[in-house]
Amino acid sequence: MLPESHRERIDVVLVSPRNPLNIGAAARAMANFGFQRLSVVAPFAPMWRQARSAVGAPELLLSAVESATLAEAVAACTLVVGTGTIRYRKPEQPVVTLPDLAPLVARELARGGRVALVYGSEKHGLTRDNLSYCHLLVEIPTDPRQPSMNLGQAVAVCLYELAVRAVPAPESLQEEPATLIPSTTSAAPSGRLELLAGVIEEAMQVAGYSPRGMQPANHHDLRLLLRRLALSAHDTRRILGLFRRILWRMKRIPVRKDKSN
User: Fold this and answer.
1) Contact 134, 228 (CB under 8 A)
2) Closest Cα partner for 178 from 113, 104, 233, 81?
3) In the chain, fewer beta carbons within 10 Å around the N or the C end?
């Protein structure tokens, strides 16, 4: 089994869950495999902490963190994994099947990172905006005649795979492709990437690069780009300082008035 010290660095994040019973079932699955960190983002029902389906896991529900946004829930995570099917969507990030996820998680845990498994609403799953916070998308292999899974069952299947197969080992740092996750240096947490995206976006606006009508699309694309670059914490800090300096200078350049008639 995955050591407890590593299980404590894996967060289960439920985005806009509608049925408290599904939240309770997810909590029960977490307790089954020894995971304790549950985050619930903008839940539909206010009384979800009293879900009767959390058999053996009422304390886990009571200690769960409720967040207003997904950005807030994954701010400390260095690897954010979205879950869902690609049957009706064109993913904008790398896609792995569930059996291939464990080595990637093991690699992130081995270098001291924190991982978030993100699940969408029972009604429509993760939205395109939700997925822009994710480094990759994991797909659970299912029969094509029934591709969707109950929320609690999906959490159980994923956590079982990680509990028995994501045990960090030194060789995992060398075997996995560097295109999905950066090398052995510590990765930038999601919150720092959001901060960097905000500063870059402000510089784009000051430079006139980002018209008001394009700002939402540019922000979405920038969020995805920063995660594809797989920046280290050190590189993120350096780039943030660079753009802050550029922005500071741009705001102090006097505006030239057109004197032509």
Assistant:
1) no
2) 104
3) C
The residue assigned the tokens 């395109």 is 128
What is the full DSSP assignment across 94-131? -EEEGGGHHHHHHHHHHTT--EEEEE-BTTTBS-HHHH
**Which residue from 63, 38, 48 is spatially nearest to 18, judged by alpha carbons?**
48
79's enclosing H/E stretch is strand 79-83
Phi-psi region of 43 (alpha: psi -120 to 50; beta: other; left: phi over 0): beta
Q: In what order do the strands lie in the sheet with 95-97?
A: 65-67, 37-41, 10-15, 115-119, 79-83, 136-139, 95-97
Q: How many CB atoms lie within 10 A of CB 30?
A: 25
Res 219: pLDDT: 87
Residue ranges, comma separated, of all CATH 3.40.1280.10 domains in the chain are 4-175
Of 256, 246, 234, the closest CA to residue 202 belongs to: 246
Q: What is the CATH number of domain 4-175?
A: 3.40.1280.10
